[in-house]
Amino acid sequence: MGTLQAMTINAVMQIKSERKAKANFWIQQDIEQLQAIASAMKLDNYILDTGEEENDQERDIRELLNSDDLNGRRLCRRSKKKKDERFGADFVKLTDYLLQEDRYPEKDPEGEDYPAAYAGKSIQATKSNINITANTKVFSDTIEFTQYEMDEDRNIIYTDDVPKTYTAKDSNGNNKKVVVQIVANGSEEEDNPDAQNNLINKNYRLVRLMSVDSQTKYDLVQVYYRVGEPYDPTDPNPTTRGKDDNNDFLRDEESGRRSIISYNYTEIMPAAVNECS
Q1: Is residue 108 a contact partner of residue 193, using CB atoms and an 8 Å limit?
Q2: Distance separating alpha carbons of residues 88 and 96, to the nearest angstrom
Q3: Under a CB-based contact definition with an 8 Å cutoff, are residues 174 and 125 in contact?
Q4: pLDDT tens, position by position, for the chain (277 residues)?
Q5: Disulfide engineering: 186 pairs with which of 18, 157, 198, 254, CB 3.0-4.6 Å?
Q6: Do residues 265 and 27 lie in contact, with contact meaning Cβ atoms separated by under 8 Å?
Q7: What are the backbone angles phi and psi of residue 270, rounded to the nearest 5°?
Q8: Residue 193 DSSP class
Q9: Under the phi-then-psi rule, with left for phi > 0, alpha for psi from -120 to 50, and beta for the rest, what region is 249?
């Protein structure tokens, strides 16, 4: 192998390694944010301290979780065993609400004004699949969870350069349901604030896949993270558009092409749940 070729391969491998490291950091930041949200939820009535209210007042969020049953939306509901009425479903509703409230800042990290098309405007590209409202049956109405097969070292298993997948099962043997949330995006447009999320000058997307299980009474939220190339269903070119057969808002990996560069897993449940009798 020639010296120039070796140098080129080394440079490519270094870039991939740096992208993966930045993607892992991206995921870790979101894990810490979810933990903070969960820990701020009070035991009795789902009051969230966002830290953004005037005079540090707390916001009663029961209405946004279920407008028809303000007294029933609590952490302690051991008599109920329905997956759409436990903490897990409410936590997904809350995180979806916070995504809908996302706004671009007025200024960039250097203190310069963002273009008027973005400054202070809603970030439309952060959302959930399914579309969630106060009365949505979160884990009944959503999609089945397509998971990647992994080896003992948690590396994705490939057959003919295509990842092997399966439909995840709940502890009761039923197909597991999942809500997919777009957390953050990069951008190909330099003036778009999302461009600051690019990983070594390339556009990637961070998604959470949130699920629950009967074994933990649907209170513990299982959060699977993936960072990969964004899937754009509006792209008219099938070659650049690719496919998204598993409905995770990311472009599927294809023969000879890798989309997913990082993935992780965490579990979320507020400590207050342990105080329930």
Answers
A1: yes
A2: 12
A3: no
A4: 556 555 444 555 577 889 999 999 999 999 999 988 887 766 554 545 445 545 445 555 555 555 444 444 455 554 456 888 788 888 888 888 888 888 888 888 888 888 888 888 888 777 888 888 777 889 999 999 999 898 888 788 888 878 889 999 999 899 999 999 999 999 988 888 899 899 988 999 999 999 999 898 888 899 999 999 999 989 999 888 999 999 999 999 887 788 999 999 999 987 666 665 4
A5: 198
A6: no
A7: -65, 145
A8: G
A9: left
54 domain-assigned: no
251: containing domain: 3-49+65-275
Q: Is 259 inside a domain boundary?
A: yes
Rounded to an integer, what distance in angstroms lies between the CA atom of residue 226 and that of residue 24?
10
In angstroms, rounded to a whole number, what is the distance separating the alpha carbons of residues 118 and 115?
6
Residue 57, in any domain of the structure: no
Q: Are 187 and 104 in contact (CB under 8 A)?
A: no
**Within a domain: 242:** yes
Q: Which amino acid is at 273?
A: V
Of 246, 176, 211, 267, nearest in space to 92 by CA: 211
Question: What's the residue count for the chain?
Answer: 277
Confirm whether pTM is higher than 0.70: yes
Contact 230, 251 (CB under 8 A): yes
Structural domain count of the chain: 1
